[in-house]
Structure formats: C-alpha cells, structure tokens
Prior knowledge:
The complex is a heterodimer of chains A (142) and B (217).
Chain A: H1 3-23, H2 34-38, E1 41-49, E2 52-53, E3 63-66, E4 71-75, E5 81-88, E6 94-99, E7 103-113, E8 116-125, E9 129-139
Antiparallel strand pairs in A: 1-2, 1-3, 1-9, 3-4, 4-5, 5-6, 6-7, 7-8, 8-9
Chain B: H1 3-18, E1 20-35, E2 41-42, E3 44-58, E4 61-78, E5 82-103, E6 108-127, E7 136-139, E8 151-153, E9 156-171, E10 174-185, E11 190-192, E12 202-216
Antiparallel strand pairs in B: 1-3, 1-12, 2-4, 3-4, 4-5, 5-6, 6-7, 6-9, 8-11, 9-10, 10-12
Amino acid sequence: MNKLSYIRGLLAILMIAAAISGCEVDSSVEPPEKEFFISKDWKIKGVQVNGAEVTNTDLSLYRLSLNEDFTFTRIGIEGAEESGSWNLNASKTQLFLFVGQANEERYFIIDLQVRKLVLQIIQDDNKIGTLEIKYELEPLRD
Amino acid sequence: MNRLGFLILFLAATIVSEAQVTVGPKVGFSLSRQKETSPYQVLKQGVHYGGVARIEILDFLSIQGEILVSQKGYREEFDGDQAFDELTSTYLEIPAMVSLSKATNDFTIIANAGVYNAFWQAGEFQSTIDGPDAIITESYQFVSSPDASGYKDNRVDFGVLGGLGILYDRFGSGNFILEFRYAKGLSKINSFEVEPSDYNPRKNETFSVSLSYMLFL
Lengths: 142, 217
C-alpha cells in the first residue's frame, strides 16, 4: 500500500463521517417562528418595577409554561396555579395571556433570545400612578 | 499495599518491561450529539487532541490508554444549515481500551474496544433567533446541586467506545495510526430529583476520526 492509497483511505473515512453528518439534517423541518422560541417552560430571573430591581421577594416558585398548542399554565410567586391560552400579535412584538373569558394580559416583548425572554407590562394604578413592570425570564433546564 | 496489589503491580511491571511501548500525540475531528429527541438536532463538529500510550502485550493484543481534551455537545439547525442553538462542551477524557491487531503486508488493521471516563470542564452556548448575524455567545453556567426545579448537571461522564483503524509503520521512526471511533456515553449529563414527564435525558454520543503518531520507548 503506497502513501496515495493511504490518503485515499483517509479521505474515504472523512467522507463517510461527512455523510453521516449530512444524513441528520431533515430538510422537511420548517424554520421555527418566534412562537417556537417562546413556547417553553420559563422561570423568573429578575423583576424590575419602574427601573428598580425587586430584591425583597422570593420569586423561585414562579413558573410560566407556554405550550406549543398555545395554552399556558402559570404558577404565581405564592404557588397559586392558573391556566389559559396565549398568543402573539401579528408583528410578534406583544404576548397576550388570556385567563378565563374576559381577562387579557398584554406584555410587550422587550427581548427574546433562545435562553432569555424579557416582558414588560404597564399598569395604571390610581394611587401610585403608572407602573412599568419588567420580567426577565429564563427557560427551565431540560 | 497488600500481597495481591503487589503481585498485580509486579506482573504489570514485568509485562511492560517485556512489551513494546509506544507513545505519541493524537489529534482528530469529531461529530457529536446529546439529545435523544429533537427534530432539529444535527451532528455537531468538534476537535480533540492529547496523548496516547500503547503497550503491546502479544503480537495481536495491546492495551491503549489516552488522555484527551475533547469537544462534544449538540447543535440544532433549521433549513439544514442555519444553527439556532449549539452547545460546545469541553471534556477532559481518559479512554482505556483493549486493542486487537492483524498485520497485512502493507499495514496493520486494529480494532479497539473499551471504556472512557470524562470530566466536563467547560461549556459554551452559541444561539440566535435572527440568523447568523445575531449570534449570542454565553458561557454554560453549571448547576452543581439541585436548583429550585430539582435540576442538576452531571459533570462526570462514563461510556463505552469501539473503533477500527490502521497502523502504518513506514513514516520515519514511528507509526501512524488512523482510527475511526464511536463512543456512547452511559451517564446522563443532566438529571432531576423528580423527573418531569417530558424529561429528555441527554447523553454524549460521538463519532470521531483521529490520527496519532506513535514513537517507540
């Protein structure tokens, strides 16, 4: 066996490896939309109210599970669970949570990454004034 | 040290003193994956490098040990070429193998089988939802003890491996070994105190091609 044959053998093995890699790609898979990245189980990493970080509240119980079928389950910071449906607006910049028939929560999507979702909700309070609450969420590990 | 330990050490020393020992550097290319269920997962490219020691016990039988820095992980793509999530995990890996060999006129065919133990040293995510111009790089934050959801990273990986290769001894004073290897992790790299219903255990799985240059001691 000369060196040329040896190199041919090496190239053959590399081509087999590349072929194995190529076989894994399923071209029938559609590109994910933003809903794909949002439909996860999220937990709170931090909360800001009017720009000030909330530090005196235990947020560890909070869970927001946004399911692929556009239903959701939320566990509040005190452990209360509620469920409903969710959706995005046409421009994918706002997230709507529908709890029951009439209760709609509208969140602005400030930032969306594979491992980060920042939502903002604006609430008007007669006594305090306008509250801008910003939630930084991160996905549960899987 | 008890008598049995001393005897084993003595026998090992005797074998090694009689045996042909070769050592050398090793570099290679790998394709790996971790997730068992993901329609977007493709094989992730990585490299490995380190050192090899090979002790020939009999003409056809050797034992081989290695210490490697090895990249593993997963990669998820859509469109078949646009990655949206990739984890590059760097392991310090110690494979130990039994190697059978069969000489031909021009080269020696070798078949390896064994186990490996590896320690997950570091990890890096590269992800994007807006295409390759907006890639975000993040260090993997290890969870060493169960978090609020009961999740924990397992940084020690144990697995089995097997490989086929050829040893070519006509390059200078040493031998070249070209090997194609498959390694399957048996350890889950993540775990929960109470496994959720949609728990997707991740285990390392690697295909690799490597080249070693072995020098006689």
